[in-house]
């Protein structure tokens, strides 16, 4: 049967084109040679041609294909390797100015740059001698901006041309890694090596600013020592395209871009994250969860956390003399029967797991673990001392600071004997101190802020065990002159400066701020896994039968009291007591006594297996691995915030918001010898850009290597 075209009398020619041609649309193909020359075929006929040194002719061919409806604007953009907006711009220029408008104009400065090849070498030599950028600029006779550009990587066009450098491709696509994926699937590749995608205006390049901070935490080294670089199954290293390095960095970059949960990867451009990893794309959600589950099968999350804590103590010993301890409830909204806990921020009891966190005096995460159900903070403090002693050694005498939930004078004595100082708020009523007992005291913190207090300081004895014993310590009371409120602080420290101890106690809110920030930005309450493990059936819990019986007794007492009150009113009115009512009161008293005896006969606590045989706990192995990565990232971010402080006037309030803007900023990546230049785009305001430039200078000095390579990271701000 003849086709439709033949019935109309039209016979389409066969689209025969040379091999290697790129299909553009139906009947249209593009063949480009290595030197840039090309031919456009329409239904097998050569319609346009251009030389490699004639970009205007190449642009004209692209414009004419769209203008004559041979192909769509999007199809032409894909075939010619440019953005669709670029095709639209070429068409507008051609429409306004003809072929002349398509001729490329040389961009860049209109005068010769001062940064010649010799001048760049001179500036870099001066900088290598240890001089600051301002000193280098003065010695070389250039501006500080030019000096920074010469050292940190923004090379002028003349120097770039002389050295043979090529222009960076905007939004460059990563190298295709299909062959390596196939090799990994066949078991021939343990881990794909990072390959840097050089290009301009690449999304999320600012997130690479976290790498020097991650290097300080030791996360990649510690995890590699524990789990190995490649995929591990039952202790053996297996082939995998995404190795441990890529896995950890994926979680880190996801946190920085506001998606700390695994499912957040579905909301981030995988190619953008892939460039940061040195790969073609980031792993998918299913792959990330699968790999984390494999690591969880090793059951080594506690070792990972302890190793990171040891590294933290070694790097920040000055911050670990004072430790804040508190519990945090992760509310559970699933259907499993999980023990209830009191969620203070919601003022309600609901199913959830309680995690105990230990942070240093700066509010950085040090240790965290899942507390036993129903365990008080006082009980957790005993476990805290064991873990902290293992970290700090036998000779250290750290101070443990906590809130009133850990109040126990008996425990304070135990902690003091174990070589720990205590710092907490006093619990219960206290006799106010007279006004003349207070004196003004001052403390200057690390940022130079002067804190003024009205303090009273004297020794006290705290009774316990029903007053049979006492614990002697020190009470520091702060007076608020505006409200007249007095806040009592209990401590075993003997520092002569009471203002120092008051500042340390009131700085406990750093841990509360840590909880708030990590809940919002680091997925502190993320479930991360749905796996559960059976709860301990022998664990003693409150007997629900005794609870119900106690309610019945309380209800009976209320009813009798209400009836007695009613009859008392009748007696006052002169009404005679009815014998039947008197008998009813007598029977009610007998029934109340019976209920009370039955209640006393019931045990206060019973094994969990008898009352809640289906009780479970959340399996935290996968969450502990994810939390270890998140906490290391948080600590690294805290380090960047401290670096920003001298260069940004509002760092105390806005340092982390500024860092989040940096993480989401695009930038350029370029490899020059053994240096990977990271040029981050300017920020929303000049003052923030200046702070970024200072931070880049600080980060470059660290000479951090990009993970998995020998490339040294050099940071700078991209020129507008």
Describe the structure.
By secondary structure, this protein is of the alpha+beta class. The chain is 43% helix and 19% strand. The strands form 6 sheets. Strands 8, 9, 10, 11, 12, 13, 14, 15, 16 and 17 form a 10-stranded mixed sheet that branches. Helix 12 runs antiparallel to helix 16. The N terminus is likely disordered.
Helix content: 40-55%
Strand content: 15-25%
Name the shape in a single word.
Answer: elongated
Stretches where pLDDT falls below 50 for ≥5 residues? Answer: 1-12, 106-111, 154-165
Rg from Cα: 36 Å
Task: Produce a short descriptive summary.
Helix content is 43%, strand content 19%. By secondary structure, the protein is of the alpha+beta class. Strand 10 and strand 11 form a beta hairpin.
Give the helices and strands, then pairings:
Elements: H1 4-7, E1 22-25, E2 28-32, E3 38-42, E4 45-50, H2 55-67, H3 73-80, H4 84-97, H5 99-102, H6 117-128, H7 133-140, H8 144-152, H9 157-163, H10 178-185, E5 199-202, H11 211-217, H12 219-227, E6 231-233, E7 236-238, H13 244-256, H14 270-277, H15 285-296, H16 301-315, E8 322-331, E9 340-343, E10 348-359, E11 365-370, H17 377-392, E12 399-402, H18 409-417, E13 421-425, E14 439-444, E15 450-464, E16 469-479, E17 486-491, H19 498-506, H20 509-521, E18 532-534, E19 540-542, H21 544-572, H22 579-601, E20 605-607, H23 608-611, E21 616-618, H24 621-644, H25 651-663, E22 667-672, E23 675-680, H26 686-701, E24 712-717
Parallel strand pairs: 8-12, 12-13, 23-24
Antiparallel strand pairs: 1-2, 2-3, 3-4, 5-22, 6-7, 8-10, 9-10, 10-11, 13-17, 14-15, 15-16, 16-17, 18-21, 19-20, 22-23
